Amino acid sequence: MLDHLVGRILAFGPRCVRVAIDGFTAAGKTSIGHELAQRIADVGRVALRGSLDDFKHPWDERHLYDRITREGYYRNAFDTKAARRLLLDPTAPDGSGRVVLCCIDPVTQEDHSNMAVDMPDDGVLIVDGVFALDRALNSCWDLRVWVHIDSELSVRRGTARDADREGGAEQAEAVHRDRYLAAETLYVEEVDPIAIADVVIDNTDFGRPILERL
Question: Is 0.85 topped by the overall pTM?
Answer without folding.
Answer: yes
